[in-house]
Amino acid sequence: MNLSELQNGQEGVIVKVKGHGAFRMRLMEMGFVRGKFVKAIKNAPLRDPIEYQILDYNISLRRSEAKYIEIITKEEASKLDMDNYHGVITNDILKLSANKKRKTINVAFVGNPNCGKTSIFNWATGSFEHVGNYSGVTVDVKKGTFEQNGYTFNIYDLPGTYSLSAYSPEELYVREHIFNETPDIVLNVIDASNLERNLFLTTQLIDMDIKVVAALNMFDDLKRHGDYIDYDQLGTMLGIPFVPTVGSKGHGIKRLFDTIIEVYEDKNPKLRHIHINYGEEIERSIDSIEESLKGLNDLGIKMSPRYIAIKALEKDKKLLSTLESKEIYKDLLSKIRKEIERIESKCNEKSEVLIADAKYGFIAGAVKETFKESPKNRRRKTEMVDTIITHRLFGIPIFLFFMWIMFQATFSLGSYPMNWIESGVQLLGNALNSAMPDGMLKDLFIDGIIGGVGGVIVFLPNILILFFFISFMEDTGYMARAAFIMDKLMHKIGLHGKSFIPLIMGFGCNVPAIMATRTIEDRNNRILTILINPFMSCSARLPVYILIIGAFFPEHAGTVLFSMYAGGILVAIISSRLFKKYLFKGKDTPFVMELPTYRIPTMRSTLRHMWHKGEQYLKKMGGIIMIASIIIWFLGYFPRETDNAEKYEQKIVQISQHYDQLMKNASGNEKAELQKKKEEQLSSIVVKKEKERQQNSYIGRIGRWIEPALRPLGFDWKMGVSLLSGIAAKEIVVSTISVLYQANDSGNNKAQLIENMRNDTYADGTKVFTPLVALGFLVFTLIYFPCVAVIAAIKNETGSWKWALFTVVYTTSLAWFLALLIHQIGKLFI
Ligand code: GDP
Ligand code: MG
């Protein structure tokens, strides 16, 4: 009997708790564990919840929940064992009976038509049910009973189905059997020679969060074809033990039921509840629907909340009609509709199709990793593409080649629109220059805002091109393959293939990339992926590279750029290995990497994805970059006067007078010559004066304050200030450089900026920037403090400041150290 039938004051022993995993877990946490005594305190026919006493305290349970707890009472036990105990049932005997009763396991057979369910059923029970093609419509179930290892099995041969949606009577029947009869174990019979189609049903069982054992039937066929499957690994990934069987010959049946006992007793190491990852948008909706389910008491009992959410998004007819039948579900229903609408408008595809696609992607990934088809059978087309792209040897070179193309295009294609935007910015500057009266406000607009923001906005095309490539790779399904190819390699650095996508996303922006690590189930791996993500050179660093590379390595631009990214990856790999070794020891759990089917994305959707990412960049431009530019400009603009200002004025007057004197007595030709000389000398004084003023400005003071720390790296105070300002956002490094180097001439063009940087000298006349210094600066920019937004993201995702602070210290000291090495060692050779 079940717990809800227990009368007031009556006592019983818990035999088992049925239902889905999350539910069982919750009841167990409340103390409803098998073998425990439970007493009904208040249970009137219409009373809900019912109050029970268990482990010496009172607890109330809803009637609908109590139904899932199987118990045995003294009365029941005495009926069972009348002969043995002569009616005297002590507590010990009651416990024994409970244990005995527990040794009955109900198993439901679920599988595709013709996968061999009835054959296995017949072997197990010794009966002779008709095997052969099961033809559809009559829905019936055969029950059989047999014993093995002291356990009694009640097995149910259910009709064959390809799926468990509510579309056919069989499907609905099987589903209702699972939910209403709550078998202890579902036996998923799988036709091994048709693995992918059969596993589709398995993914639905996984969603249900129930105990499943899989019979890998037709194993003889599989062998005969010369195929190979690592079912052990497959089982580990899916959290379901797989047992190979030959139903027609009875092979493997004994072992199958031994495994069922192990799973029933929670002793099988493979058993684990996993989540199939349905992709960002669907997962978000699942979370949000699950959240709304919390308030609805009765819904989550029969089915796990995640399953309900998935079914809702699949527009499951049965579920929706249940929800429509009651007023209390009104809000939930409208929430579901809204989520479906959101997904469909965002992904341009029906939500149920997206879910099915994700399932197939999941299966393809699992199969790809564990199943090797005999070479003579390999013919199908996407597989052809996949065998090349994910080839053991060619896969990685192909991938690197794509990456190289991406960076080349980013640089070369991007230079055209970059020039147009640059001219636009310059035009705007000139227009303002002539329209506004001289003064501080004009300086603020032209040097501060246009110089700062304009210096960064020119890189928008490069960033959009990079995003275009990333979006395109995501949309075609190549990104998932890339993760797949990289899996082995990622294992070598202590990570998973799954960490790969967040890392690639890091090339766009580390903030969403760090958020994308949520798909990594294992916490250690997640944190590890988060920690090395900042070394994936984000697009904000791109402007810095482009500027510096354009100025100092114009002949090898693409290669240097590629090396920067590669260098970041290298640092990430080394860091990862170190972290793995010293910070995160422990074993990994394998899981499935999805391989979605290839798709040719529409230009529209790829462009939209690209724009979606680019938009964030523009927002940053209007916000933090603008503000930082103004602050930097302000700090560089004040104070206006220096101690030596008067001396310079005097010198200017002196020079003017000197040349004016000379020119008085000069001939025409000589006059022009003298005039030129005069101008040269004057402008050099002006530059000197401005330089001194700048060094004396607030920003100059800050820069000089940190300069001693940066001198060993070959950096001057301007670079120091630029790097300092980059803490807010890396693009600001460029806008700061623009503002700092723009100071002594009008106009804001990049060629001039580069010219100024190349010609910048220390007081003793040596050049500030050498290629070596430029390289050190690039490396420093790549590695040091990621921006504040990233630090905030790390804090959020890891849940503590610890890792955020760790990142700040680790990255900055590493950057300093590497730049030091480059400079000190490089100096020996150059
Ligand atoms: P059901 O529809 O799932 O109940 O499948 P059946 O048990 O009726 O089996 C369908 C057909 O597959 C029958 O002809 C069986 O003899 C055959 N069969 C079942 N198991 C195996 C197996 O492991 N290997 C092979 N080669 N044939 C099998
Ligand atoms: Mg059958």
What does this structure look like?
The protein is α/β, with parallel strands linked by helices. 62% of the residues lie in helices and 8% in strands. The protein has a six-stranded mixed β-sheet, sandwiched between helices. Strands 4-3-2-1-5 form a five-stranded antiparallel β-sheet. Strands 11-13 form a two-stranded antiparallel ribbon. The longest helix is centred in the C-terminal third of the chain and has 35 residues, at 603-637. The termini are far apart. The model is unreliable at 131-138 and 743-747 (pLDDT under 50). The site of magnesium ion (MG) has 3 residues, from helix 6. The site of guanosine-5'-diphosphate has 19 residues, from helix 6 and helix 9.
Features:
single chain; 830 residues; alpha/beta; six-stranded mixed sheet; five-stranded antiparallel sheet; 38 helices; binds magnesium ion
Strand coverage percent: 5-15%
The Cα radius of gyration reads: 36 Å
Strand tally is 13
What's the overall average pLDDT, rounded?
84
* Category by helix and strand content: alpha/beta
What order do the strands of the largest sheet run in, or round the barrel if closed?
7-8-6-9-10-12
Helix tally? Answer: 38
Provide the helix percentage.
55-70%
Q: Distance N terminus to C terminus?
A: 87 Å
- Characterize the largest beta sheet: strand count, sense, and whether it forms a barrel: 6 strands, mixed
**Dominant shape:** elongated
Based on the structure, what is the oligomeric state of the protein chains? Answer: single chain
| Ligands present | guanosine-5'-diphosphate, magnesium ion
Low-confidence stretches: 131-138, 743-747
